[in-house]
User: Fold this.
Amino acid sequence: MSDQANRVWRLTARPESDRIDDALELETEAVPSAPEGGLLVRNIYLSIDPTHRIWMSEIDQYMDPVEIGEPMRGGTIGVVNRSNAEGFSPGDIVACQGGWQDYVAISAKMVRRIDRASNLPLSAYMGPLGNIGATAYFGLFEIARPRPGETVVVSAAAGAVGSLVGQMAKIMGCRVVGTAGSPEKCAWLVDDLGFDAAINYKDGDLIKALRETCPGGIDVYFDNVGGAMLNAVLTLINLNARIVVCGLISTYNDLEQGGDGPAMFRNVLMKRATIQGFIVSDFLRRYPEAFAAIGQWLETRLLQYRVDIRQGLENAPDVLKLLFTGDHSGKLIVQVSEEP
Ligand SMILES: NC(=O)c1ccc[n+]([C@@H]2O[C@H](COP(=O)([O-])OP(=O)(O)OC[C@H]3O[C@@H](n4cnc5c(N)ncnc54)[C@H](OP(=O)(O)O)[C@@H]3O)[C@@H](O)[C@H]2O)c1
Assistant:
């Protein structure tokens, strides 16, 4: 990376299915200036998230899609390079939507200062102490509201959000079953994170495995996946079950098609279940509450997490694909430049 040039991944087309390479181009441009009242920030870490695939599409979604020709949107942690904003100085560390690029010129109102109060690595602020942690916290405690002793199933359980959700449910005194896509991930959930059971959903009959691991039925389902997984869980829900729709990653490469709903949707009626979607940014004002609790759990080792840092902005599209194959271990991040 040079401080004379800004490499920018721009969206050049709407991708078809998983062919995101056809939709992105890396361009080299001049480094922008810090705007009046704003900052020039050098991106250090770029968060790679399933929702990037949603933003690339033009379906009706929870925020505006990225327009053709725009820099690809993405959450970042960076260091202030130049400041025209009161209260910010070069060297300050901030989180913002810095995008898939080396530098971002941004209003100071659009950044969150990171005060590193602990010995945790900076990347933790993109995992448990960032949107990921807030998603797990508010999705579980505000939407699902599990009670001690209840059975909680979480999908994509070895992923960034799922692994935190399962551990938080254990902290609440729940029985927790996770689903994940490999024996290694399942072993990590049970042996290291303390899940009661884990199911490799690629291996055998999912409904049978859920029946065996949830003999008392399912009270809470934290869904990161949708599709066949949601259908299997609906088959086994208990009276007054709560289903939290956090994500539907199994559908993201097929968004334009819409897709069919789950065949067992009738159990929402039969079991008087509640099914609720949420978007973490709705809870933005309450993030400090989540980070205070999560910070304590990290300190006391009640909560563990993994980050998977891949090098180089130029590799961002290939890294995004890993979310859909599952070939990563924890919160997926691209390192754009060195930490100061
Ligand atoms: N609502 C919100 O505000 C919000 C905020 C953040 C994230 N989310 C959602 O939360 C979910 C998890 O996000 P994350 O960032 O923590 O990603 P992640 O779980 O770290 O990575 C995604 C994982 O999904 C699994 N997966 C991919 N395709 C799948 C398929 N077809 N069937 C089943 N599993 C599949 C893979 O794990 P396996 O190896 O186990 O297959 C992969 O590792 C996503 O759906 C995301 O959109 C929602």
Summary: The mean pLDDT is 96. The chain has two domains: 5-126+306-335, 131-281.
